Amino acid sequence: MSRPTVPPRGVYTTFMNFPYAADLDKLDAHFAIIGMPYGDPYAMDETINDQTNAPTAVRRASSRISLGLERWDFDIGGPVFDGKDIKVVDVGDVPGDPRDLGKHYKLAEEAIRKILKAGAMPISIGGDHGIPIPIFRALDGEGPITLVHLDAHLDWRDEVNGAREGYSSTIRRASEMKHVDKIFQIGIRGQGSARTEEVEAARKYGANIITVYELHKRGMDAILAQIPDGGRYYLSIDADGLDPSVMPAVNGPQPGGVTYAETIDLIKGLTRKGRLVGMDLVEITPSRDVNEITSITAGHIILNVIGAAVRAYIK
Predict the structure, then answer these.
(1) Which of the 8 DSSP states describes residue 160?
(2) CB 137 within 8 A of CB 180
(3) What is the spatial distance between Cα 147 and Cα 174, in angstroms, rounded to a whole number?
(4) SS3 content of the chain, % helix, strand, coil (to 5)
(5) Alpha-carbon gap, residue 277 to 232, rounded angstroms
(6) Left if phi > 0, otherwise alpha if psi is -120 to 50, otherwise beta: which for 292?
């Protein structure tokens, strides 16, 4: 029987050495780490987008983020699992097929649907920012979803001339899905690919565009107050949304970004307000990293998502 995931690539370790779960039809877990090593090349001289190497890089660096999950974590406010019987698994990577690029999206959606059916929270490591598209599709039974998007750049492009999946804006694609309700885009700054008409289109849709300057001036608590209480939230983190001092391994670094502490406050705030149904962390370019700091930061963010959710939802 074919399966929508394969073991993690290149290394024989999982994220934080959590158990590897190969069969998604028999999944028994509270949280499922899944790698989505897919990325369209940005230029012809890129044989493959280096962001496809991010799941392996984050797994490899995870050995540097914790001396033991029973230790006190001051970011989380105690041990990660809070003394509870928590099951976290790594289900490996969604494979790609160079002869059928769209197949990755089909397998990714299948994998996420199986994870959700098992009652687990999917935590995805990309890959480029196209990989949330199949995740959003798989969440159609979880709506209405409030999408919280942390990014430096506002991208609201239309798909052009029948281009492949990842070409058009991931967030715009999400806005066209009926189960995606409100959209909050946090940390926007500098100059990205958005033209004036695309910014106007995002505002016309009703996207809540929160610049990093508004965030730094008002604080994360004030931003969280704008997000409706009692919702079901999905968190999509583009690595360049954080400041390059903590996530240098990106293609489009932009100074003045969201801090690590603000990111953790966002995670804790969402789990206190309602239910976080999943998250992804994308656009990490490992070849640009410095002392693995990006991958280490990514690992800490994932642990904080688990720790916050454990305290909010799991008895």
Answers:
(1) -
(2) no
(3) 8
(4) 40, 20, 45
(5) 6
(6) left
Cα 246 to Cα 55, 130, 153, 270, 305, distances in angstroms: 18, 23, 17, 22, 18
* Residue pair 274/230 in contact by the 8 Å Cβ criterion: yes
Q: What is the mean pLDDT of each run of 10 residues along the chain (315 residues)?
A: 73 84 96 91 67 93 91 97 97 87 91 98 93 95 94 75 51 91 96 86 93 98 97 97 97 95 98 97 96 97 98 91
Q: What is the pLDDT of residue 86?
A: 97
Residue with tokens 């958005």: 194
The region, left, alpha or beta by phi > 0 then psi within -120 to 50, assigned to residue 187 is: left
pLDDT of residue 160: 44
Give the Cα separation of 259 and 4 in Å (integer).
35
Q: Which two tokens stand for residue 230?
A: 């009692």
Sheet-wide strand order for 232-238:
88-93, 31-36, 121-126, 275-282, 232-238, 145-150, 180-188, 208-211
- Angle subtended at Cα 286 by Cα 280 and Cα 290, rounded to the nearest 5 degrees: 115
Check: pTM over 0.70? Answer yes or no: yes
Distance, in Å, from the CA atom of 89 to the CA atom of 207, rounded to the nearest integer, reads 34
CA 78 to CA 83: how far, in whole Å?
Answer: 9
Q: Within 10 Å of residue 143's Cβ, how many Cβ atoms?
A: 15
Q: What is the pLDDT, as a whole number, of residue 14?
A: 93
DSSP code at position 70: T
Query: What is the C-alpha to C-alpha distance for residues 249 and 173, in angstroms, rounded to an integer?
Result: 26
Q: What are phi and psi for residue 196, nearest 5 degrees?
A: -55, -45
